Amino acid sequence: MNDYEKTFLEKCIISSKRERLRYELNTPNKRNDFLMRFCHDAKRYIVSKNILFYGPLNELFLKISAKEPCNYILSTKYFNGTIMNFLDMQNYILNEYMSAIVVTKSYYIIKEEANNKSMAYLIANK
Predict the structure, then answer these.
(1) What does the DSSP 8-state code read for residue 106?
(2) Domain chopping of the chain, boundaries
(3) Contacts of 58 (CB under 8 A, 6+ apart)
(4) Which of 36, 37, 44, 34 is nearest to 5 (CA)?
(5) I need a labelling partner for 54 at 20 to 30 A (CA). Which of 3, 39, 64, 110 fits?
(6) What gap in Å lies between CA 96 and CA 92, rounded to an integer?
(7) pLDDT digits (tens, 9 = 90+) for 35-62
(8) What burial letters (b/e) apply to 51-80, b meaning 16+ CB within 10 Å?
């Protein structure tokens, strides 16, 4: 588990779920289990008071700035995480059909699929 993932757990995940998710991130053959938890009904894991937006993924991109210098992506394709610029990140998660987690200096994005739609949470990085 790297620093991006640690801050994601500490700032976004409810305390009662953190230990299990920390274990999954730290165990190579369990990382997929971690990601699958965010495919549907991700809200059960998220600290709700930090949610700034929940809605269609394409609407999310109207609310955030493309000026974020670093976008860490964790997904089934980027199983161990990778860094992307804003436009590459946007393109990638708009075309990804599984869950994805994005960490930036200002916010977190959790992408899930709900009712055959790509939905996203925007969470403050406080």
Answers:
(1) S
(2) 3-124
(3) 94, 118
(4) 34
(5) 3
(6) 6
(7) 999 998 899 999 999 999 999 999 998 8
(8) bebbeebeebbeebeeebeebbbbbeebee
